Hints:
Blueprint: H1 10-13, E1 24-26, H2 32-43, E2 47-49, H3 52-59, H4 61-70, E3 78-81, H5 83-89, E4 97-100, E5 111-113, H6 116-120, E6 129-133, E7 140-147, E8 150-157, H7 160-164, E9 174-176, H8 180-193, E10 197-203, E11 210-216, H9 226-241
Parallel strand pairs: 1-2
Antiparallel strand pairs: 3-6, 4-5, 4-6, 7-8, 7-10, 8-9, 10-11
Helix pairs in contact: 3-4
Amino acid sequence: MVIAIDPNEARLAGTPSWTEGIDMVLARGRSEPLLACLAVAEGLGVATLNASRAIRLVRDKRSMSRVLEARKIPTPVTYLAPIRRLVHMIRLADYPIILKPIFGDNARGLRVVRTAAELADLVWPEPVALAQAFLPSDGYDLKLYGIGARVWAVRKRSPLLAVTGGGERAVGGEPVPLTPELESLARRCASAFDLDLYGVDCLPTDRGPLVLEVNDFPNYSGVPDASDRLATYVAARARERKP
């Protein structure tokens, strides 16, 4: 039986009774109330997918970028600092750049900056920004979706088109062949963050795919029979945890 739990009910986070009779908690989101509920469940020995620590690592782009760098996973040139310092840190050759809020998702808060002068005049709403080289593309991203040991590759219109005025944000995706290189890259990212359900946003380049971001529990658009595959995997993991 599946039970929907609203983590925004304040009584849940600090009250362990809501976990009684639950074999596994499947987290769809990354809000603080949800993460607090996951921490309670984990403290009581209840299995969670994904784990709260894994979600926090990818939710915070500072942590994400540091983990990717430490694991030597290929990414665009990346800077992390307050805007006033970024002006002096970023090489002219790396412009244009894209600025990302530390806790933004779904392309919210992204800003493409084309010159150092534009960056110097920019008012940024957060103390720190993550800046990446804004590399040319054909308007499509490569998404790697993982459910446990299974990986799929999907070609999808880039959400940056809506940011740069190139079109509306697309919601669908088209499956593409999964090469050994892409499968290995997806597994490396999953291992780096200890994720069971994940997505990897990539940009194909002449040097191979570069990882833009790693996400917990993506929408799996373009993955055939995604809902059934998710249900089968989650049920199997829950059965593994039963005594």
